[in-house]
Design goal:
Blueprint: E1 3-9, H1 13-22, E2 31-37, H2 44-51, E3 56-59, H3 66-79, E4 84-88, E5 92-93, H4 96-108, E6 113-120, E7 127-129, E8 132-134, E9 141-143, E10 157-159, E11 167-171, H5 174-177, H6 191-201, E12 206-216, H7 232-240, H8 248-257, H9 262-285, H10 288-303
Helix pairs in contact: 1-2
C-alpha cells in the first residue's frame, strides 16, 4: 500500500524546507513525498534536490496556483498506483505518527476522506480546525472548536459536514468519482472546499481524526482580515486578490455552485460580506484587547456547541 504526500510550493524556501524537515523521518515504502514547484526563483528546487534525494520533485509554471500544482501531484500519485493521496501544505509541521493515524482511520472507513486536527504552529495547544458543520438555514459553515484548547475537544473520530485540503487524506477513488480539483474555477482558494463537497455529494463520508494533529503556520495562508487592521489598499486587495478568501469573483462562484437555493445563496453572500466589513470596522475602532475578547466570544458561540466524537 502506497500513500503519496502531495505538496505544492512556490518561493517559500525556508517554509518548504521546514516542512520537509518535519517529514524527514518518513523513509519507508509506505509514503512517497511529491513536491510540485510552480517555478520558484528563490532556490527552492535546488535546496530540495540537495537535501532530499528521496523526494519526487515535479515542476510547473508560476501560472499554476494551488489547484493546478496539486492536480499534477495527484496525477503522478495515481499513475504510480498510490492507494491514498494526502494533500499537504508546506506551512504544516507533522509527524509520521499523525500520518499513520490518518491512514489507519482510512483503512477502517473505506471511501472516507480524513482530515487531521489543525493546531497553531505558534501556539500548539490552540485549535484552528477540528471540522466544520453547515448551518441549518444558510449555506454558511462554522469551524468547530476553533480557538479552544486541544485537550478540551475530545478524542476519536468525528463525522463532519466540511473539511479542508491542507492535511487531508483522500482515497484515490475520490478522483475517479468526483474528479480533480477545479483549477479553472478555483485556481487557489476554495479548490479544496469545492472538491470535498463534490466528493460528499458523490457519497464519500467526511471525517476528522481528533487524535491526529498537524501544526499549521496560519499566518502564511492567504490574505486574512482577522489578524490586523486593514487600510483601503488592503481592503481592495482582499476583494480582488487570488490569495484572498473574500475575492468577490471566486467566493461568489463558490457559493453559487454549492447553494441549496437562491435564497440561501443570497443570505449567505450578504451575511459573509457584512461580517467581513464588521470585522474591519471593529478593528479600526476598538483596542486590540477588546477586539480579541469579542472574537473569542463569537468563536465560542458558533463553534463550541458540538464537540463530541463518534
Amino acid at each position: 500500500m502506497n500513500v503519496a504526500i502531495v505538496i505544492p510550493v512556490f518561493n517559500r524556501k525556508d517554509i518548504t524546507l521546514r516542512c520537509l524537515d518535519s517529514l524527514h523521518s518518513i523513509r519507508n515504502d509506505k509514503y512517497r513525498i511529491i513536491v510540485v514547484d510552480s517555478g520558484s526563483t528563490d532556490g527552492t528546487r535546488e535546496a530540495i534536490r540537495e537535501k532530499y534525494s528521496g523526494v519526487i520533485l515535479l515542476e510547473t509554471t508560476p501560472e499554476s496556483w494551488w489547484a493546478a500544482a496539486t492536480n499534477i501531484g495527484v496525477k503522478e500519485a495515481i499513475k504510480t498506483g498510490c492507494k491514498y493521496i494526502l494533500t499537504y501544505n508546506d506551512d504544516n509541521v507533522a509527524t509520521t505518527e499523525t500520518l499513520n493515524k490518518l491512514v489507519e482511520t482510512a483503512e477502517q472507513n473505506p471511501g472516507s476522506i480524513i482530515s487531521s486536527v489543525k493546531c497553531s504552529y505558534q501556539n500548539p495547544d490552540t485549535v484552528l480546525f477540528a471540522g466544520r458543520r453547515q448551518s441549518r438555514f444558510t449555506d454558511r459553515s462554522y469551524f468547530m472548536n476553533r480557538g479552544q484548547k486541544y485537550d478540551q475537544i475530545g478524542t476519536g473520530i468525528r463525522k463532519v459536514d466540511w473539511l479542508h485540503g491542507q492535511c487531508t487524506l483522500f482515497p484515490a477513488s475520490v478522483f475517479e468519482t468526483a474528479g480533480l480539483f477545479d483549477e479553472k474555477a478555483f485556481p487557489h482558494l476554495y479548490a479544496d472546499d469545492d472538491l470535498i463537497l463534490r466528493a460528499k455529494q458523490a457519497g464519500h463520508e467526511l471525517l476528522v481524526n481528533l487524535d491526529a494533529v498537524v501544526l499549521n503556520d496560519e499566518n502564511q495562508t492567504g490574505i486574512n482580515p482577522y489578524y490586523s487592521r486593514m487600510n483601503i489598499r488592503n481592503i481592495s486587495e482582499l476583494l480582488t486578490s487570488t490569495k484572498s478568501f473574500f475575492q468577490l469573483k471566486t467566493k461568489t462562484r463558490f457559493l453559487w455552485r454549492h447553494k441549496r437555493n437562491i435564497l440561501t445563496f443570497l443570505i449567505t453572500w450578504v451575511a459573509d460580506y457584512a461580517r467581513l466589513f464588521a470585522v474591519i470596522l471593529l478593528r479600526w475602532v476598538l483596542p486590540e484587547k477588546m477586539y480579541k475578547k469579542i472574537e473569542k466570544s463569537y468563536q465560542q458561540l458558533v463553534s463550541g456547541q458540538d464537540i463530541s466524537a463518534r
